[in-house]
Design brief:
CATH topology of one domain: Tetracycline Repressor, domain 2
Strand content: under 5%
Shape: elongated
CATH superfamily of one domain: Tetracycline Repressor, domain 2
Oligomer: single chain
Helix content: over 70%
Order of helices and strands: HHHHHHHHHH
Length: about 190
C-alpha cells in the first residue's frame, strides 16, 4: 500500500493523487487506508519517515561506541549515501522540494524526519568524540552539515537534475571515500 502510494506521489505529485486512486491501485479499500494511516498527509509522512529511518542507523548502533571514528564514518558514509541516493529517496526529495510552496508542512516534516534528524545524530556523535579528545571539533553542529554535504552533495545534485538517471555507485563510492578522508583530516586531533 505504501509503495503504491509512494510511486503515485512521485509520478503525479502530492496534490494530484487521491486516496481513491491509491486504494484502487493497491487493491485495498479506502477504509483500510484510513485505518492504517488516518489520511493522505499521514500516509505521505509515513513514507517519508520510512525512507529517512535508514539515515542514522550506522551511527547509533551499539557496536559503534567502541570503534575508531574513521571506521564508523567510513561505514556510515557508505550506508548514508546508499540511503539518500537511492532512486526512490531522490524522487521523494525532488517531490518535497517541488511541493514546498503549496505544502510547507509536509516539506518541513520531511526536513525534520530526514536531514535534520540525521544531522542531529551525527552532531551528537561528533560531540561525544570531541569531548573524549579523539577529534578536534569546535563546532560539531556545523561540522555535521559539512560532512553530509561532502558525502552526498555532488552525486545528489546530479541525480536531482537528472544529469545521471541512476546512481553511479562505483563513482559515488570513490567520491564518498574521498569526502570521508577529507573530513577526517579536518577534524583530526592535534597530537603535537
Amino acid at each position: 500500500m505504501a509503495k503504491v502510494a509512494r510511486d503515485l506521489f512521485v509520478a503525479h505529485g502530492f496534490a494530484a493523487v487521491s486516496i481513491d486512486e491509491i486504494a484502487r491501485r493497491a487493491r485495498v479499500s479506502k477504509p483500510t487506508i484510513y485505518a492504517h494511516f488516518g489520511d493522505k498527509e499521514r500516509l505521505f509522512l509515513h513514507i517519508l519517515e520510512t525512507a529517512c529511518a535508514r539515515l542514522i542507523a550506522p551511527l547509533v548502533s551499539e557496536d559503534a561506541r567502541g570503534r575508531p571514528i574513521a571506521e564508523i564514518l567510513r561505514n556510515h558514509a557508505h550506508h548514508y549515501s546508499r540511503a539518500v541516493l537511492a532512486p526512490e529517496v531522490v524522487a521523494l526529495h525532488r517531490l518535497c522540494v517541488g511541493e514546498a510552496q503549496r505544502f510547507p508542512t509536509i516539506s518541513r516534516r520531511y526536513f525534520e524526519q530526514g536531514p535534520e534528524m540525521a544531522h542531529k545524530a551525527l552532531a551528537a556523535f561528533l560531540q561525544e568524540r570531541a569531548d573524549a579528545g579523539e577529534i578536534d571539533c569546535p563546532d560539531c553542529d556545523l561540522a555535521a552539515w559539512h560532512y553530509a554535504s561532502l558525502v552526498i552533495a555532488t552525486a545528489r545534485t546530479r541525480l536531482l537534475f537528472r544529469v545521471d538517471d541512476t546512481p553511479q555507485w562505483q563513482e559515488i563510492d570513490r567520491m564518498v571515500a574521498s569526502a570521508v578522508e577529507l573530513f577526517l583530516r579536518g577534524i583530526a586531533a592535534d597530537t603535537r
